[in-house]
């Protein structure tokens, strides 16, 4: 029985971000992607208002037309939207792994690249196309050690995987459409995939909230530090971060909430890492120390431990530690500017 455009649009409107219309059309990979990203972060769901007729037409192709589809080695055309989706979903899967699975052994060498590769391959398998999973994962495993330990490592790993997936793209082999299979087994597989994705993240959020916030704050701080040489771009990025709260203030007609959220963001961005806490101990400072207090303590300790004035054997090593500690804390306490 053919699929109805009316039903597809109704499911798109009622539960589109959860992939109900893709489930109806037998596009299980697309449905799973929408379940895990809430409709492609909302953007993909909106875009589909003009794509649904093509999806329905594809689902209604009969077996003869399916068999007539070219099986030559000519790959399908490169789609910029698909490629951008691969990169974004790869980063998204990597971020979720960093939040929920970073305590596992060999995380940065094995777990993280496999999670990023799974996200990229999921986007590659949407619709009639697919890619070489083995080569995509291999690209992730090769790239991962180069950026070992970095909170921004999902970005280059996802780029490498997306390029590899695009180079090895191909049409899916002819097979029985998923829409003709039984619904219960399909829902069972989708449910297992959803649980595998969400269970580690849910555990981390509900049982390790502090670590989650620390990671998020480190990510935001790392992103802002990239633009230290372009203050205007840094300010634009901070403005985007605060945009939801500015909208809330506009709707409520008050400014108090904006100031409160600004203060919260500033505190979040200034959470101390383990290295920074060690630097505070070296300079004999508390966590609430200001930049002026840090500088004052640094100058006093430099006078005490400078090798030219201190004959102690440990003077030079201590002097280096003091200087490194000051550099770490100075980078953290560069003032944030809000427009």
TrEMBL record:
Role description: May function as a co-chaperone.
Organism in which the protein naturally occurs: Scomber scombrus
Membrane topology: Multi-pass membrane protein
Protein name in UniProt: DnaJ homolog subfamily C member 22
Family matches, as CDD domains: DnaJ
Protein location: Membrane
InterPro entries tied to this protein: DnaJ_domain, J_dom_sf, TM2
Transmembrane spans: 6-25, 83-101, 106-126, 146-166, 187-206, 212-233
Keyword Metal-binding among record annotations: no
């Amino acid at each position: 029985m053919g699929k109805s455009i009316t039903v597809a649009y109704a499911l798109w409107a009622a539960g589109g971000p959860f992939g109900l219309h893709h489930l109806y059309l037998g596009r299980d990979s697309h449905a799973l992607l929408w379940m895990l990203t809430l409709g492609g972060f909302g953007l993909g769901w909106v875009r589909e208002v003009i794509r649904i007729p093509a999806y329905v037409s594809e689902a209604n192709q009969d077996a003869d037309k399916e068999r007539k589809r070219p099986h030559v080695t000519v790959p399908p055309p490169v789609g910029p939207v698909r490629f951008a989706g691969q990169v974004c979903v790869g980063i998204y899967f990597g971020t979720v792994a960093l939040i929920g699975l970073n305590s596992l052994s060999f995380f940065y060498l094995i777990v993280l690249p496999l999670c990023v590769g799974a996200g990229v391959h999921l986007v590659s398998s949407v619709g009639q196309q697919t890619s070489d999973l083995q080569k995509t994962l291999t690209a992730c495993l090769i790239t991962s050690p180069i950026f070992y330990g970095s909170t921004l490592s999902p970005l280059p790993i996802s780029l490498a995987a997306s390029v590899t997936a695009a180079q090895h793209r191909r049409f899916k082999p002819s097979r029985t459409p998923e829409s003709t299979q039984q619904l219960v087994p399909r829902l069972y597989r989708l449910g297992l995939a959803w649980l595998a994705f969400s269970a580690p993240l849910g555990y981390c959020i509900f049982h390790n909230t502090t670590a989650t916030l620390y990671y998020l704050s480190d990510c935001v701080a790392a992103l802002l530090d990239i633009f230290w040489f372009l203050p205007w771009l840094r300010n634009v990025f901070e403005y985007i971060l605060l945009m939801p709260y500015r909208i809330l203030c506009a709707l409520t007609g008050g400014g108090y909430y904006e100031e409160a959220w600004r203060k919260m963001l500033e505190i979040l961005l200034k959470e101390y890492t383990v290295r920074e806490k060690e630097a505070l101990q070296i300079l004999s400072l508390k966590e609430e120390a200001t930049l002026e207090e840090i500088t004052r303590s640094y100058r006093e300790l430099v006078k005490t431990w400078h090798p030219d004035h201190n004959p102690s054997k440990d003077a030079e090593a201590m002097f280096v530690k003091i200087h490194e500690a000051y550099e770490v804390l100075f980078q953290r306490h560069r003032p944030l500017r809000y427009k």
